[in-house]
Amino acid sequence: MAENQTLTIRFGIIGCAEIARKVSRGIALAPNATVVAVASRDVEKARRFIAVNALPEDTVAHGSYEALLDDESVDAVYLPLPTSLHVRWAVAAAEKGKHVLLEKPTALCVADLDGILGACEANGVQFMDSTMWMHHPRTAKMKELLSNSDLFGQLRSINSIFTFSANQEFLKNDIRVKPDLDALGALGDLGWYCIRAILWAVDYELPKTAVALRGSVLNEVGVIMACGSSLIWEDGKVATFHCSFLGNLTMELSVLGSKGTLHLGDFVIPYEESSAAFSFASNSGFKELVTGWNPLPSKHVVMTELPQETRMVGEFARLVSSIKSSGSKPESSWPAKTRKTQLVLDAVKASIDKGFEPVEIGS
Amino acid sequence: MAENQTLTIRFGIIGCAEIARKVSRGIALAPNATVVAVASRDVEKARRFIAVNALPEDTVAHGSYEALLDDESVDAVYLPLPTSLHVRWAVAAAEKGKHVLLEKPTALCVADLDGILGACEANGVQFMDSTMWMHHPRTAKMKELLSNSDLFGQLRSINSIFTFSANQEFLKNDIRVKPDLDALGALGDLGWYCIRAILWAVDYELPKTAVALRGSVLNEVGVIMACGSSLIWEDGKVATFHCSFLGNLTMELSVLGSKGTLHLGDFVIPYEESSAAFSFASNSGFKELVTGWNPLPSKHVVMTELPQETRMVGEFARLVSSIKSSGSKPESSWPAKTRKTQLVLDAVKASIDKGFEPVEIGS
């Protein structure tokens, strides 16, 4: 096989969660990826998923996850299973030589994640978590501005909010309110994105300490419905975030530097698919007599031909193709970002469990 | 004198701080107020202030604060003095029967503020703090939406940020970095607005507890350069704020309800003087397959003929006129708002002083 040949990576989807519908469309739109198999413990459910989501007619429906992992036509798996099942099936996938695109939150704790990452490394397969907004071209544009010391200066503080208003059905029956399925609740589902955004803004420098904010809300079986945390770095940077199943859909990110301010209100899912905006202000000041601002913050708009989930799939497939065609090593920066996110998430959870005491962030 | 006659209220300005320039213009633009006297400990400074700011030619320059308070042509004083001087001069003004418009932060602690408010009450004079944005018509429009339970639901959480990037001269010599002048530093200067915005959003229901956020920055003489706090209410509402002299000019307010989200980036000083905008989202959700939002947040624009400081002066003068012309009592809601702001500010300061321990908010 020629070096650097671009292969079309063949995905198997394990589990028919709602989010898998969006990602399977994402795969279908990617020029270097395709869905070849879907597995559910109920083969009829897998068949329906293939039909309803207009996947290629020859997509194979498997009646067990094991069968999909034994399917030699599958290069990589996308795993949208409940978090409690991630270790088992991500490790099994890696051991079968399948590359792993894993839905977030990646694990219930970093020890579990290390099991997954260890299996991926040992088997030479690519790992990436499914944090889609990382792959939007807006994200790169924002990072370019945050990295410009004339425009942004030194990073001082970050605030992030991700909430949505869950209905009664969700609050009673969704996997994200169940201790045996997605035990991290809103922290895992929404706080994951806030923590990732904060780490992204600081170039993945781990904070020293997490102190969860009082006022977190747990359901009657102890799963987090709403919480927040402050994070503190050695050099004085600070961040806060708030995540909740109990507030209107909101996803804000504000990053403040000594000279600049970034703000956006749709950092996880852009308001529109084909373009996304953000506000950036630099060296802000007032007009004479403080009657207004000068300069005003600028609105930046970034277009994208492909949706962010397709860009994610495309990047993942590109790395897999490189491994398959030229024998290159898996890209280690993606699992490293995942692991740091999980470390911070673990510390916030521990702080909540310890009655909002400060918790040092591990490594 | 006929009842409800609208009088033109005659202001004396005590102290020639930079902010007094903006407020003296505000008074000049108010249809029911005028500046008649300016006092400085240096009479030449008062004369220059009158000339430079194009105040009426017959404005009297006083060479002492006492002289202005003895000036019978003065109905009301605007006091932009350093906070440490507020008790002395606000009390003296009240005792001379002058109505008091007091610059924020109003006092170094609630005990000092109570001295001021007690003197105002005892002497039947109106008290108001100079928090200008309270009087912008945008503020009323936002409150209307927050009060609409169909659109906003139940209030869940608030975040507020107010920072500006002080230059080296400020960090060395401004009164706001000096323990004997404005000892509350960034908390008093900027955090005041964040706390007021949070209280405004919850209809002035005091939080139960303040927990200052680790990572506050003090200068070498112990004055706060940057800090933040979380606030927690009995019923589960939560808020956070961050204020700093070390970050690019930023003033954000996000108020989240179970059904709605309010956001604006210029809550203290609108970007433009004649109109001000905010974003409001209600019952936000996603499009099919989460490819975007539906509905999108709406942008609301509120026009104002008069700048917010003029509206503030106009409201204050209207109350003073009512007292003078019809013998009505001073309006008690303004000092009540001030006092609650100061109570929360005191609790945040105490939490910082106690190493970020939770502090119950007094009453």
What does this structure look like?
The structure is a homodimer of 363-residue chains. By secondary structure, chain A is of the alpha/beta class. The first copy, chain A, has two domains: 9-133, Rossmann fold (3-Layer(aba) Sandwich); 136-308 and 342-360, Dihydrodipicolinate Reductase, domain 2, CATH 3.30.360. In chain A, 35% of the residues lie in helices and 26% in strands. Chain A is built from eleven helices and 16 strands. The first copy, chain A, has helices spanning 18-29, 43-52, 65-69, 86-95, 110-122, 137-146, 149-152, 168-173, 185-201, 308-326, 333-353; strands at residues 9-14, 33-39, 60-62, 76-79, 99-102, 127-129, 155-165, 209-212, 217-218, 224-232, 238-244, 246-257, 260-264, 275-282, 298-303, 359-360. In chain A, the strands form two sheets. In chain A, strands 7, 8, 9, 10, 11, 12, 13, 14, 15 and 16 form a ten-stranded mixed sheet that branches. In chain A, helix 1 crosses helix 10 (308-326). The radius of gyration of chain A is 21 Å and the shape is globular. The two termini of chain A are 40 Å apart. The model of chain A has no long low-confidence stretch (mean pLDDT 97). The interface between A and B is large, with 67 and 67 residues. Chains A, B: Belongs to the Gfo/Idh/MocA family.
